[in-house]
Write a structure and sequence with these properties.
heterodimer, A: about 110 residues, six-stranded mixed β-sheet, about 0% helix, globular, B: about 110 residues, mainly beta, seven-stranded mixed β-sheet, four-stranded antiparallel β-sheet, 11 strands, about 55% strand
């Protein structure tokens, strides 16, 4: 399986603290993406980082990618109660003949306590 | 814009029944995907369609079939439902094969 693995599985922090989630994967990728899912809802795309990029920022989000270690991290700064959700990393990889698969990890459940 | 629309939102089937989950996107996206989400398992890819007229198996295709009816629509069919197919099913689409995915709100399927 190409599935990535997030770490930790669950994270509980106080509002205002930073939250860091990690993702490891198994094979060469085209890009890596992070998604958020609120309970009972669909996934929402947060940020995409290409394989030739090392760091990317979007608002309070910072993503790093280390292709030599096949790992990525998502940092949410100054967390808010509204950030409570599950966060998934997804790897996009070439499955052959110019076709790409987007494979998800099992997610990190983040709880931000007001 | 509606984005990605899935129907139905909820469904209960008896073992052995068949049904088709519908997915449509209005963003002129080329690629479409079907995933299932089970507790503790994350999302697993069932089938995908890189472009109109093509479909490929993902990680867990057994027990499912798909049809890319046109560029907008990608349906998932369960020919003979089994309790192991109880899950939440998500459809997604991407503009290109390498861009971000947009998801529908999901179909919660229970097979009894």
């Amino acid at each position: 399986s190409q599935q990535g693995e997030e770490d930790p599985q669950a994270l509980s922090i106080q509002e205002g603290e930073n939250a860091t989630m990690n993702c490891s994967y198994k094979t060469s990728i085209n890009n890596l993406q992070w998604y958020r899912q609120n309970s009972g809802r669909g996934l929402v795309h947060l940020i995409l980082i290409r394989s030739n990029e090392r760091e990317k920022h979007s608002g309070r989000l910072r993503v790093t990618l280390d292709t030599s270690k096949k790992s990525s991290s998502l940092l949410i700064t100054a967390s808010r109660a509204a950030d409570t959700a599950s966060y998934f990393c997804a790897t996009l990889w070439d499955s052959g003949a110019g076709s790409y698969q987007l494979t998800f990890g099992k997610g990190t459940k983040l709880s931000v306590i007001p | 814009n509606a984005g990605v629309t899935q129907t139905p939102k909820f469904q209960v089937l008896k073992t052995g029944q068949s049904m088709t989950l519908q997915c449509a996107q209005d963003m002129n996206h080329n690629s479409m995907y079907w995933y299932r989400q089970d507790p503790g398992m994350g999302l697993r890819l069932i089938y995908y369609s890189a472009s109109e007229g093509t479909t490929d198996k993902g990680e867990v295709p057994n027990g499912y079939n798909v049809s890319r009816l046109n560029k907008r629509e990608f349906s998932l069919r369960l020919e003979s439902a089994a309790p192991s197919q109880t899950s939440v099913y998500f459809c997604a689409s991407t503009l290109t094969g390498v861009s971000e995915a947009f998801f529908g709100q999901g179909t919660r399927l229970t097979v009894v």
